[in-house]
Amino acid sequence: MPGRLYVVSTPIGNLEDITYRAVRILKEADWIACEDTRTTRRLLDHYGIATRTISYHEHNETERAAELIELIGQGESGALVSDAGTPLLSDPGYRLVRAAVLAGVRIEPLPGPSALLAALVVSGLPTDQFHFGGFLPPKQGQRQRLLESLADEAATLIFYEAPHRIVETLEDIAAVLGNREIVAARELTKMYEEVLRGTATEIAATLAARDSVRGEFVVLIGKSLTPPAENVPVEEMIQGLIAAGVERMEAMKTVARERGLSKREVYKLLSGPAGPKPKPPK
Fold it and tell me: What's the CATH superfamily of 116-221?
């Protein structure tokens, strides 16, 4: 009789954040597939779990998934975990779960900790709709283009970001999305848990002033605060973005996108009889 696959959520920091059921399943499983066996072993040792571990990460998941499905077909049951939180969310696991689906394996989820949900519920931002985008692209151009594509999304935007890129990412958010409410959370459930609130420019300045920044971040971006009404003067919209720390040309691009205008059309509106004479965009 085939075994089954359990997808088990584990703590994102505080080891007490695990369910009774998760501990039981990890003890009863024939094996545990995990990103880093050393990281998972610390959790298992804490709860006296002796189940053998099998390395399963982004560099071996294609071939290892086939091996694990074969073990399940032989009657073994296995648990899939990530280093922290819920597997598959910006972590390996999709290929194994997909292979299990195709093989007709029974899959059982064990819900639990998730950094994106933990950050969302303490953010104070709307929770009725949200868009999770995983990690933003490391290259600035790609990152800005992605942010631009989500500018009109009627939902709270959520991303993960590494500590060495957080300041420049916040600067890009300010440049592309303007004066929006931002929440940046790090080290959630750990000793140095921190939730920063403000504009992207304000939070970037706070972090840039520190000697070092540690811990991966969850960055949440509120919906656009720019008034959509057509009777709001373009210059007023641009000045509002500039006041939030956005460069003038970036503010013009943002307003052009939100008003459905080209950059040259915005320039013409600003170059009217009573308007300023900015340098035309190229």
Answer: Tetrapyrrole methylase, C-terminal domain (3.30.950.10)
